[in-house]
Amino acid sequence: MRVPLNWLRTYAAVPESVPTRQISDALVRLGLEVETIEETGAEVTGPLVIGRVEEFTEETHSNGKTVRWCRVDVGPYNEGGTPTDFGAPGRGIICGARNFAQGDLVVVALPGAELPGGFKIASRKTYGHVSDGMICSSRELGIGDDHSGIIVLEPDAVGPLAAGRTAADPADLVVGADAAPALYLRDDVLDIAVTPDRGYCWSVRGIAREAALAFDVPFTDPVSRPVPPTVDEGYPVVINSEACPVFVALTVSGIAPTAASPRWMQRRLHQAGMRSISLAVDVTNYVMLETGQPLHAYDRDKLSGPIVVRKARAGEKLITLDDVVRDLDPDDLLITDDSGPIGLAGVMGGENTEVSHRTTTVVIESANFDAMTIARTSRRHKLSSEASRRYERGADPGATYAAAHRVAQLLIALGGGRLEPAETVAGAVPSPATQRFDDRLPATIMGAEIDRSTVIQALQAVGVAVDDQGDRLLVTPPSWRPDLTDPYDYVEEVGRIYGYENVRPVIPTPPAGRGLTRRQRLRRLIGQALADAGYVEAQTFPFMGRAVLDQLRIPPDDARRRLMRMANPLSEEQAELRTTLLPELFASVNRNTSRSLDDLAIFEIGPVFLAPQQRSAAPRPPVDRRPSEEELAAMDAAIGDQPRHLGAVLTGAVRPAGWTGPAQPATWRHAIATAEIAARAVGGTVVAEQAEQAPWHPGRCAAIIVVAEDGTRTPIGFAGEIHPTVIEALGLPARTAACEIDLDALVGAAPQIGSIVELSTHPVVKEDIALIVDAGVPAARVEEAVRAGAGGLLEDVRLFDVYTGEQIGAGKKSLAYALRFRAPDRTLTDAEVAQAREAAVAAAARATGATQRTE
Fold it and tell me: Which residues fall within 8 angstroms of residue 92, CB to CB, at 6 or more apart?
């Protein structure tokens, strides 16, 4: 929100002697974010004066351009100018514009002046004459966008009508006088980033209220008329939606179609970041900036039948003021008449009732709309307007009537119109909720000595109605503060008025005996192990869209289709919470490879969000106590499962080519190794078995299974090479490999860490065995049987050879394992080793049908 200080001082009596920086600092202390202070007009330096065009001649030159050779009277600045051939006092100036006449007052930049952009004015010869200055346009002075002609000064209402002057003062337009005051050129503008909970500060009214609080000076509220009871004597209005509690309609007739907005209004609009369009539009925009209440003006002659507020119907369309045809959604709130939709309520009006240069009678709309309805409509149509930004933050319903009459007042004064006595007030301002407030709560929360009277004074200062009933306070928020809903909202108001700088900070003493949980320690060990192995950790957004699941070839009945949609997504393309880490990791791969970073090994540890099978609404417990166990259980059930996953993606080469040998490309084996590294980091064991799972290649995909100490097998994820169709759809490098496992399941099955394992000093015994199994039997299954059969003497087992050929028969394969045996307390005998080896072979035979290879 951009607020010119002169406009702010209209309603907050901050003395002119108070520096702008001091005002900014005071607003910051009250919780507003003043981002910049802009000194508008500061780029214009040197003599800029009011001149009168005494005479001119038009000359057409060889290049086909017609210019005017003018004699301009600039009062005391006539002396010292370059002599002209006019034979009369004044400055000779060449001007290419033709929108002025003899006797008009204009703005003249004399030699020595400098305009925005470093444009210096000097006497120079052009078109056969010495031009001794420049007659300026709005764009050249940086006070507007109009460059079609130069500024012609006319008698103008000085300042806003609230300043008490409604007619021009001839003394303001004196030939030779400084033009800056007449142009309202110079002022300081505060650019304030308003947080979503402070919607009332999207107005000069709101910022002025805060400034008056900061300096303890009088505040004049421009919203001085309460909304009266229902009146239906004016233009007919029908409300058919709860999303519109109140609608005010006034009619102003007899407006001069050619009436222009005064300079002070155009300048303030420009300083606030808006452009001047026409009187009717400028007035509604001006009052919106002033009061925070969005307004709209309809050409009454283009309206057909009563104005109706309702939700959209299937198939309806609307051409908005930006000339875009919009397909309406049933959740869109509309303004309609007998012809159909004429406006997207709270967002933008329709083209079919737009005011034009022929409009003489307008119907003024001043309504209040539900914040969430407007926010969703704005995002749905990707149409953010000044009106929608205010409505979605909570506009003041109590300002509707006063704002409508302020618009009518300005149209009458500036456009010569007449307010028709019949008016319409449909609906009513919702009653704010009164609640009990403990006056001791601010002192308890902030740790400061804040007494009862200070609490009451602070709340009343921000507009809260306080009923002191002795043992309690009953507080009622003002209509412009919809954010005051909980006791702690009032605590925050007391704190910022009391001054956070007055609260002495106290460092809390941490309780003893607490630290990282077991799961946190194990997750950190896994992250460190992967980083040590050369992986780079990525942090991605937890959002995704439904479309990416189709690109990943996820089946309809897959659990990853159980998406949870966010109520207020940042983007409609990613409106759901992720159920897998892979899409955003793939997007990270795309960003890196687009910058020629092709050799990648990235991982992420983070939660995924699976919607519950049975949907239920989560309870909303109050903020003044801890939720009960039943409420916590109900919230857990409503939000579904949120397991923490580990995802990793590998592309390019895991080892670049060099003098030690050729490059080693990343393959499905390295994806499986990711899970093995994670398991080893926490003392766990995983095995890989061939599987099929989207988005992996069916022939190069492994199921990752964690084996607990008691032999329990738990599938925790998949690893392997990504399916070629998925790679093509997502634009990934060829043969991209990936792994995704349930980290919570892995950590849960990991052995207890922190104990010291004694190392055996006795010798190890090495034995090799070769087992023949069917070609379809996973090697991991054989290894698991060997481990179980060998017993506690087996220290390690490793597959070192796989053989297929005529010697073992068709459809068979030979798996050779290296076994290491060792006892912690003695040297093993040959008999003990032989018995353990034979037990391992027997166990493999029972589990997989293996036979020992003897040749």
Answer: 69, 70, 71, 72, 81, 82, 84, 85, 86, 129, 130, 131, 132
